[in-house]
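Key result, reporting period 2: structure in, sequence out.
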């Protein structure tokens, strides 16, 4: 069984699903979002990154399933009290060695820890089929409904994203649909109306919608990785976010701003 690379284990996370959570960030992603605030998540292998003192450090390490479960279980009392659990994120967790990911989810399930999958949807549908029995839901990114825009800003089209979203909906999965918002690119009200029309037409069932405004918190990481920064976007105003939120709420969805 191949062992994936983990670049961060974030304790007491409150933005990656309900309750208090531990988020496991797996290294490696099949797409390249130009707004990515974790560029160290993109490559699948460990890499050198300068720390804030300018010294080199290796980003990414391997853990056995037993080691990861032990770290996850350390905070089980907080999960139980808050309705939280563990979130597998990235990078893209569904593009990692799947046998490992499934076994990790099984083991978390066995010890009573709820598992969520944070995914961009760019992975084989069979991967979602195999993980589905062992997780409690998905934080599912729909970056653009328009395939050409998806290609322009992420490097791939969205055919697989939409296919996998429809599959998970058909299977009755719990879905938190997450919409990244970039001012002047996808904050026009018509774009929200198009998404609502598509969700209705395809009978997509989502438990909630999360609006994720762009932020530039990761800009310094590009310099520390000695890469050109691609984070050159504008954060939507609070008024615009509230306006978009109201559109989705009017259509009957539970909608939050932020993760």
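The corresponding designed sequence is given below.
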């Amino acid at each position: 069984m191949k062992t994936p690379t983990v670049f961060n284990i974030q304790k007491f996370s409150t933005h990656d699903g309900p309750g208090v959570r531990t988020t496991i960030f797996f290294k490696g992603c099949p797409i390249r979002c130009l707004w990515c605030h974790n560029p160290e998540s993109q490559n699948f292998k460990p890499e050198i990154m300068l720390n804030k003192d300018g010294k080199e450090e290796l980003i990414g390490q391997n853990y056995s399933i037993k080691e990861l479960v032990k770290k996850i279980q350390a905070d089980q009392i907080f999960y139980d009290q808050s309705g939280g659990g563990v979130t597998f994120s990235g990078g893209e967790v569904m593009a990692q060695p799947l046998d490992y990911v499934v076994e990790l989810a099984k083991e978390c399930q066995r010890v009573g820890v709820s598992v969520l999958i944070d995914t961009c949807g760019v992975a084989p549908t069979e991967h979602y089929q195999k993980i589905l029995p062992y997780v409690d839901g998905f934080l599912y990114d729909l970056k653009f409904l328009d395939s050409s825009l998806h290609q322009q800003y992420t490097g791939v089209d969205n055919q697989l994203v939409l296919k996998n979203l429809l599959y998970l909906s058909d299977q009755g999965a719990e879905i938190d649909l997450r919409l990244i918002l970039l001012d002047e690119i996808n904050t026009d009200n018509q774009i929200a109306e198009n998404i609502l029309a598509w969700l209705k037409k395809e009978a997509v069932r989502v438990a909630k919608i999360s609006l994720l405004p762009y932020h530039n918190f990761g800009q310094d990481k590009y310099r520390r990785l000695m890469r050109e920064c691609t984070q050159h976007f504008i954060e939507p105003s609070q008024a615009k976010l509230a306006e978009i939120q109201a559109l989705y709420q009017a259509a009957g969805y539970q909608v939050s701003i932020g993760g």
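The mean pLDDT is 97. DSSP finds nine helices and eleven strands in the chain. This case is discussed further under Risks and Mitigation.
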